[in-house]
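#dry-run=false #mode=assembly
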Amino acid sequence: MEQKSVKKGIGWDGKTLKEIWEEKERLYKEIGCYYGLKELPLMKEDPLKLEVFASRLLAAAVAGRETTRMISASPIVREVAELAVAIYTPEGDCILQSTGIIIHIPLMGQVIEWMIKQNYEEEEGISEGDCFTSNDNYIAGMHPADIYDIMPIFWGGKLVGWVGTVIMEPEQGALAPGCMPSGATERFVEGLRFSAEKTAVNDRHTKAFERRVRLGCRMADLFFLDRKGAMAADIKVRETIKKVIDEFGVDYYMEGIRELIEIERRAQLERVKRRTVPGRFHSLTTYEIYLSRSLAPPHHAIDRITLVPCDFHIKPEGRYFLDFDGVGSWGWHASNITPSALTGTVCMLLGSTIAYNGRANQGTMLTVEMNTPYDTFVNPSSPNIASGMFFSWPINGGALWIGQQSRAFFSRGFVEEFRSPAPMAVSSGTVGALAGKNHWGMDFGFFMTEQGGVGGSGGFAIRDGITSDPVFIAESDMGNVEVWELVLPLLWMGRRFIPDACGWGRYRSGPTIMGTYMVYKTSLVSLDTSPAGHAEKIGCNSGMFGGYPGTPSFAKVITNANTMELIEQKRPLAHGIIRSPGESDLEQNIRGNIIIPWMNSYVKSIAKHGDFIQIYNGGGAAGVGDPIKRDPALVKWDLDNGLLTIDRCRRIYCVDARYDEKAKEWIVYEEKTAELRNKRRQERLAKGMPAKEWWQKRRQDMVNGNMPLLLKEMYNDSLAKGERWPKEFRAFWQLVEDFTF
Amino acid sequence: MPAISYSKEVIRDLIEGKLPWPQVKSIISGYKDDDRFDKYIEVLQEKVPWKEKILLPLSDELYIVQKGTERIVKCGCGYEFGDYRENWKLKALIHVLETEEELRELYPYPNELDPKYCEIREHYCPGCGAQLEVDVVPFGYPAVFDFLPDLDAFYRQWLGRPLPQHKEFKDMTYELTRKWGKEDETS
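#status=ok
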């Protein structure tokens, strides 16, 4: 093991990390290629050798990720796999990354860059066997629950790179429920915070770190085992890279990692030119944040709606540009976003939609630019804001962005790449966060991600959506019930699809798995919807090509439930069986206080043994195409499989059918269907208002200010903050130049 | 490596959703075919009942076509929406869902969608009654211009065959609303 701690010039060529970083920046700025690489000598000389080299690195990252899963005890890691591993250049640029929560890949690089700029090389010392832990979102990151463990890689006494592992923690000592509390408005109540701190030396965690974790959170064993798992991944990757260097030579390694980034930069530009169409796309998201009903301090307990418009440009040179002009103000809540978080978002979106061949890295990121106006929702000016939900735009806005990029794929003919938006987890907060006493009698807090990833996807251009396609992780998994039951005081009563819940369309969104749970062996559980809900009065999504956005997420809680009485009488409980929207076994069988939780808020009752929770996290995934163009054969399939009731089958798809008791299947009446569909078209022509009339009517509403106060405040905020967007807004409605509400 | 190419029949089946999933999967996983756009346009051109040349499809119903010296948005049914640089939604029929009954039909499970805050706008083709887009926006948000393609850059720089009659890449929607505004003043 290398023990050398060098104060100056630990870079491979004797320079300091800061000097190396500055040189890299200068070369890119001056020459326009990564590290100034106009030529790619290794690629030219022996492309297969470079391919083998890249494969070794990629395999190391993937193997590191799997190693962590074997060590961690948290279901979020073992079951749901919310983690990722990446390898970095000495300057902190990603070379290759594993699958997983790749939104963090460039952000771990930003932490490395921050350490370089903060002169860790001299002031902290960077040595073989050190581990730096960070979840400080002022430096970089998405929220404090995602913890980065980063280790340097030395070879021949010089730093040749870094490896980083990110893991999501279900609890990190924040205000109850311990992770992403809805009441957090400042960073000071968000639990354990590591600001790129050295937490291990010689591959061992320091005692100070261990003591801090033991005293700093409710479920220290889970937290600590995740850190060990992360460090195991880092060490495995580090040692593999040393072997790769032994095999290829250190000069080849240092040149090769830079070529891989430049190759990917060029490849991404080429992909864009081959698969899309240049132009301008527009989408918008709104964030409804009602802190007056949560536990925020009075000066932060404000209700607001914030508008985040996004113009997405595909430039003729193949570059992407995201323009957030017109975005409203930041606020004292957990759901702002930072430019850092938006950089991670771009990695996540590109890595799962266009740069998905296993070679995404810093080169991909170099092809994207953004305009994030300072002192706004996407670029707050205070470092003290809570950061529990920097995922706000990434998941809601990111999903809509996927839809806009899909328009470009569709126009170019690559219909198989088309995905319509599915904002899912962040569309409406659901009670996935719990705290209190667990079924072992211990204090606990937990952010359960089981439901986060099993909402249906949006519809595709050529087929129906699938179950489970969250924006934030390409390969989602809800985990095994038995493992969740080990750590949470809940019994899983059912995981089921429910009828009439989708984004209607020619191709509907994928069905969502609803969870039904019974609180188990505890008399003290409080529930929080977390700050993950932003869409209540305003839908979080639009449909595509005439399809509708899907069923909003919802949750139900029944406290003081009569479950024990039912068990004694051997009568049925609830398993999430819904035959039609009005016929749910939860309401039919269980008596108690039924609560439909508000988002961004705690449930104001205590749940105990026998009480019930139900969570549906569909989140508005979109349908694609006019519903009355849906193939009747697909409609029949939905009827036969209990995903559709005959009532909505007739009213939305305009398909008539009857159930054949003998054959045990639905029979579609084709003639009647054609008649219903023709009638619907005539109805639309009769009730549709010419756009000009609609514009005149709505313009009067705008001039007269006929809208709720919160919306007027929202528009005034954006009109005051923006430059281009306010001009377009006023020009659309033909309002005077200085118009405000 | 030989160029990847699929037959027109395969492309037709793909866009019509008739290609078996294993084949679709293989197309997704494989290298992209360089001639896709041209075959795609050929297939679409055969599908529509009119003769104008399709320059770019915008959705499964809408196309930008060359009509004389103009480039206009046209529905599969033949209805013409006008210059592609104006948001076609301002030439469509619009229906805003405003009643609880309409919302409940679409969303029968618990929700707090509120028409005072949120407009769910259905856009229909005035020619055939097809539902072309459904936008969900805060009350009063301008009609969303989903996609304004830079057609000249696309044909000239990416396809290498410039279109006749260069058109400025510019959102012309505001010229239409200015005209409407003036008409309102004079009426």
